Amino acid sequence: MSSLSSVDPQIAELVKAEERRQADTVKLIASENYVSKAVLEATGTVLTNKYSEGYPGKRYYEGQQVIDQIETIAIDRAKSLFGVNHANVQPYSGSPANLAVYMAFLSPGDTVMGMGLPFGGHLTHGWSVSATGKWFNPVRYGVRKDTGRVDMDEVREIALRERPKLIFCGGTAIPRTIDFPAFAEIAREVGAVLAADIAHIAGLVAGGAHPSPVGHADVISTTTHKTLRGPRGAMLMATSDEHATALNKAVFPGLQGGPHNHTTAAIAVALKEAATEEFKAYAHQVVANARALAEELAARGFDLVSGGTDNHLILMDLTPKGIGGKPAAQALDRAGLETNYNTVPFDTRKPFDPSGIRIGTAGVTSRGMGEGEMRQIGAWIDQVVTALAKGEDEAEHAITRVLGEVRELTSRFPAPGL
Ligand code: DSN
Fold it and tell me: Where is each Serine hydroxymethyltransferase-like domain found (predicted)?
C-alpha cells in the first residue's frame, strides 16, 4: 500500500488499523468472512476503471475485449458450481439483487410473501421499512413459538389465503435447514414465483453442506461474501430461459448501470476456490463448528432459537440470562468476540435494543479453527455474559481476562488475506 500511504496516510493508517482489528478479533458475525489474498487482489485492480453496461457480447461501450472474458468466466463458474443454466453476476449486492427479482416478476402493489424480519427474514422480503414493503403488498410468515421453526402448514395456509405472486424463502437469521421442496410445492399450488435467497448459506450449498434449491426454486438470489467467501457482491440464478431473460433485463437496464468489473473478477476467483475439495471440507467444518458451539452454549444454559443449528448460524435469546442483546454484544466485542445483537422471534424489545445475539462460524472456520476452539469460544461467551449480568466490575474483570486469551488464540490462527 505504498502509494496509498504517501497519497493519503490518514486512510492508509485506518485501513491498517482495520486489518489489525480483524486479525486480533474472533469474527462471529454470521454474514461475514475473510476472503483469500487472491480475491482481495482481484478487487484492487484496473478493472475498476472500465464501464461495461450490458452483458458479454452486447455492450453499450467499446473496449470490452477483456471484460467480456472475465464476466463470461464468472458466469460459467457460477453455473457449474451451483448446477444452474443461467447466472447473472452483476447485482451490486443482496438488496439490489432481490429488488431485481421484484422488477422481473411483479408490478407495484402486487403481493409478495416472505419471512418477517423479526423471525429471521430479510428487509427486502417485504419488510415495512424497505421499498419492497412500501411499494408492494407484503404478507408474512414466521416460526412457531414452541419450536422456533417455520411451520410449512402455516406457510401454505397464508399462501392459499393471500395468493402472492412471489414467495421468498431464506433469510438472515435462520439456524435451520430451509425446506426448498416444501416451499416449491406451495408456490406451484398458488401459481407464485419462488425465490430462494441463499445469501447466508450459499457456501454451504456450494460445498454440499446444505440442500440445494436448484430444481425447486424458480430464482436463486445470493450475496457472494458470506459463507461463499467472495467479495461484496451478489448473483441471481435461474434454470428457465424465460426467467433468466426477465432477471437480466431487471438488473440491467431495469435497476443498475455498469457492473463493478473488479468485483466480477473477484467473484470469478471466489467461485473457482469454492469448486475445490478444500472448500467442500471447509463448508462441512463450518457446520460442525456451529454444532459444537451451539452444544457448548446450550450446555451453559443459553436459550438457542429452535434449540440448536443445522447450518453456520446460532441465534440466542439472552432474556433468561437477564441481559439484553445489545449490551451483551458490546461487552463481547470489547473482549475480542465480534457478534451482532439481533431480534429473536416474538421479541418484546425494540430492534435497536433487542433480546438476542446472532453468531456464525464462517469466519472462524476460515482461520482453521475446529470444534475444540468452538467450545473455548462458547465458554468465553458465557463468562462475559454471566459477568455482565452481575455488574460492571465483574464484567470489566472478565472482559480483560477473556481479551488476553482471545489474543493468544487469534495469534495461533492467522486469518486468510490479512
Ligand atoms: N446484513 C446481512 C446480514 O448480516 O445478514 C443481510 O443483508
Answer: 4-381
Ligand 1 centroid, distance to 341 Cα (angstroms): 12
**Confidence at residue 252, expressed as pLDDT on a 0 to 100 scale:** 98
CATH number of the domain bearing residue 103:
3.40.640.10
Do 210 and 355 lie in one domain? The reply is: no
Give ∠ CA 48-53-59 in degrees, rounded to 5: 115
Report yes or no on 4 lying in a domain: no
Number of domains making up the chain: 2
What is the reported pLDDT for 380?
A: 98
- Mean pLDDT in residue range 34-47: 98
The neighbour count for residue 36, using CB atoms within 10 Å, is 17
| Residue 287 shares a structural domain with residue 401 | yes
Question: What is the Cα–Cα distance from 87 to 56, expressed in whole angstroms?
Answer: 12
Domain range enclosing 386: 277-412
**pLDDT by residue (tens digit) across 138-161?**
999 999 999 999 999 999 999 999
The verdict on 118 and 260 lying in the same domain is: yes
pLDDT score at 280: 98
Average pLDDT over residues 364-393: 97
Distance CA 297, CA 37 (A): 33
122 is in an annotated binding site: yes
Task: Flag whether 417 is in a domain.
Answer: no
Residue 30 has pLDDT above 90, yes or no: yes
Which pLDDT score, from 0 to 100, does residue 1 have? 82
**Residue 359 reports pLDDT greater than 90:** yes
Residue 192 lies in a domain: yes
161 Cβ neighbours under 8 A, 6+ residues apart? none
Question: Average pLDDT, stretch 171-180?
Answer: 98
Residue finishing a domain among 249, 274, 299: 274
Same domain, 111 and 124: yes
What is the C-alpha to C-alpha distance for residues 174 and 284, in angstroms, rounded to an integer? 18
Do the beta carbons of residue 311 and residue 372 sit within 8 Å?
no
Q: Are residues 283 and 341 in the same domain?
A: yes
CA-173 nearest atom, ligand 1: 5
The Cα–Cα gap between 200 and 310 comes to: 13
Please report, in angstroms and rounded to a whole number, the separation of the first and last CA atoms in the chain: 13
The residues carrying an active-site annotation are 51, 53, 197, 223, 226, 232
Please indicate if the annotation marks 388 as binding a ligand: no
pLDDT reported for residue 264: 98
Residue 269 and residue 286 in one domain: no
Distance of CA 94 from the midpoint of ligand 1 (Å): 9
Residues 208, 321 within the same domain: no
Residue with CA nearest ligand 1 atom 4: 31
